[in-house]
Model the fold of this input.
Amino acid sequence: MAARAGSVRTVSEELLIEAQALTKRYGEFVAVDGIDFGVRKGETFGFLGPNGAGKSSTMRMIGAVSPPSAGTLRVFGRDPATDGPAIRERLGVVPQEDNLDLELDVAENLLVYGRFFGLPRNVIRRRTDELLDFVQLAERRDSRVDSLSGGMKRRLTIARALVNEPELMLLDEPTTGLDPQARHALWDRLYRLKQRGVTLVLTTHYMDEAEQLCDRLVIMDRARIVAEGSPRELIARFVEAEVVELRFAVQNGVAAELEGIGRVEVLPDRIVIGAEDGDAALDAVHARGLHPDSSLVRRSTLEDVFLTLTGRSLVD
Amino acid sequence: MDGVRRAFAVVGWHAQGYRHTWRGTVTVSFLNPVFFLLSIGVLLGRLIDSRHPQLGGLDYLQFVAPALLATTAMQTAASLSTFPVLAGLKWLRTYQAVVATPVRVPELVAGLLAWTGARVLFSVSVFAAIAAVGGAFTSAYAALAALAALLCGLAFAAAITAFSARLENANWLAPVFRFVLLPLFLFSGTFFPLSRLPEWIRPLAWATPLWHGVSLCRDIATGRAAALPTAVHVLYLVALAAVGVTVAVRTCERRLLS
Done:
């Protein structure tokens, strides 16, 4: 396994990834527009943003399968443009869409993949046992990949990405398309990897995923980074502690009557009020004679940070 | 050499998959020569006067069997360089998984072609063995003709891989089989000497790769290979393979490393 002995997790100052003014263009289209970031050894780093924000393009550049159009990028201190094989040797990549070989069985997928890294067969076999235990697929060892559920395929892709004991794992939308139970099972595995000291870089458009897993993250929107910090810092910096969500049968004109209660954001289906004390804010709404069909007071999340920074919601 | 080792890992990947599917293709490899040699070489061949001057003193079975080595190579190469390439690039994106590892695109393409070459060599060897048992060869050089067929197969594999790598879907594959590979199969001097064709169309046949493959295999198997024509056939096929590999690598790089 890609583990140090024990489960003591330390984040060092050593940067595994460094990007300056990193840019990716496809013809006229700018997918990544001059972003700066650094990922430290041992941390879990996230790219949070809606579809099309440039997260996957960034991941592919880090993975040394997509040359940057401009700017500088260093992974393990090396240049992906010239040292691709040497970088990829130390990476574990979980792509957005599974690309397992469906004709092979579970164990064969790991065997074949390990061979691409030049690992001897007996080493791969030994790791296969550990890895399939780790992703809870040991009893499906001889099943054709075709027959696995979506969540199982995802876990197999993670096992496959670990076969070379990577120092850095790149996970592009690791839980998109999975049901809630499968997502939680996957988070649990990722959390264990994190405990073992593997550096994780993930993209997601789920704010709960980012909050649960990431030590630090950047929020991306329209090819740029709009904010950076730990989930807690971002919430403290950009939004109030709590949020009141109001739904009205007819929403038109209501926003004007809410003025002064808190920071009001009008969304197509609801009105969101940011406030340090949510219950007090809701009382104030009622005191003004407004009667929403439903109301909810909750703690602020990264979703609210995104909304505040961009005026839009993460998942459309 | 890390690159060579990684190309062999790609071959190993395909060999692993073949463990699940070999029964069907091996059956085809044995039945295909039996059917062709029996129906065309023997049963049709009996109707053909073996003293016909254009057969060059061969009986029809001896005339057609070496040519069928070359066409078998072409067909095996085509089946492995079309749908599987689209699956790897597009449908299953397994090539995307490969290039996320230390394997580079030229190594991936080399591995794909090496695997295709191994499959071609197997099918032409089976063909040659069955043809030999059936008395289709008069010369021990027929064993060398299997290697000539391998070269023909590799040239086709490289060229067709380059073509398949450009496709977005399989719509173009059926026309290629029907309007390119089938006419090549029928008109490349496989079943009749090119001298049967009108004179004006013969240069077109000389330009096609299968004619060079067929001629090379026939010349070698009958022990009549002369230096100059043999060199031309070999150079043509090597050049086609080289162009095919170059274009295939470039196209795959554009698609996988964008």
About this structure: Chain B has one domain: 2-256. The mean pLDDT of chain B is 94.
